[in-house]
Write a structure and sequence with these properties.
Distance between the termini: 25 Å
Largest sheet: none
Protein name: DUF1211 domain-containing membrane protein
Family: Belongs to the TMEM175 family.
Radius of gyration: 18 Å
Membrane topology: Multi-pass membrane protein
GO molecular function: potassium channel activity; proton channel activity
Order of helices and strands: HHHHHHHHH
Keywords: Ion channel, Ion transport, Membrane, Potassium, Potassium channel, Potassium transport, Transmembrane, Transmembrane helix, Transport
Number of strands: 0
Number of domains: 1
Number of helices: 9
Shape: globular
């Protein structure tokens, strides 16, 4: 079957996830800058999560550009990824509302880790369906960035109970790694 419905559905779900997140930003009562101070942790957690969702949307888009069609296994793998991404608004709000306390920060990392695993499963399903010599397989290669991300998430989760700020620094590091453009798929498709 074609990939169009998968793309449209995924884009819609990600748009709804981002909308839910922004609705968690409550308007303060008052008109001076002092009323914004308590919202700083909520806003910072929102920004980090927005960046992660943007990274997933961008990479998901590139994945789908490198394939021709999908099957049931791919649909389920994609839904699995969307499930973990749909939990990001909850853990984002919990982390921000509790000023980056240890348990919310650890759970935030757990959701990011499970989303990364789900993304990996989706890439394997795509490669399995299209073949080891396909454009998607060549473009993904050894997926060094994906493996580094999983390791950093796995380190950050227990680190949250020692220092939630260091755990958040690792989450930010993962985001920075992925913000550096990854041109593997574009390069493979133009060759």
């Amino acid at each position: 079957m074609g990939k169009g419905r998968l793309e449209a559905f995924s884009d819609g779900v990600l748009a709804i996830i981002i909308t839910i997140m922004v609705l968690e930003l409550k308007v303060p009562h008052g008109a001076d800058l002092a009323v914004l101070r308590p919202l700083i942790p909520v806003f910072l957690s929102y920004v980090l999560s927005f960046i992660f969702l943007g990274i997933y949307w961008n990479n998901h888009h590139h994945l789908l550009q490198a394939i021709r069609h999908v099957n049931g296994r791919i649909l389920w793998a994609n839904l699995h990824l969307l499930f973990w991404l749909s939990l990001i608004p909850f853990v984002t709000a919990w982390m921000g509302e509790n000023h980056f306390a240890a348990l919310p920060v650890a759970l935030y990392g757990t959701v990011l880790l499970l989303a990364a695993f789900a993304y990996f499963i989706l890439t394997r399903a795509l490669i399995s369906h299209h073949g080891k010599d396909s454009a998607i397989a060549i473009a993904l290669g050894k997926d060094f960035k994906g493996k580094v991300s999983v390791v950093l998430y796995a380190l950050a989760i227990p680190l949250a109970f020692v220092s939630s700020w260091l755990a958040c620094a690792l989450y930010i590091l993962v985001a920075i790694v992925w913000l550096i453009p990854d041109r593997r798929i574009e390069k493979t498709l133009t060759q």
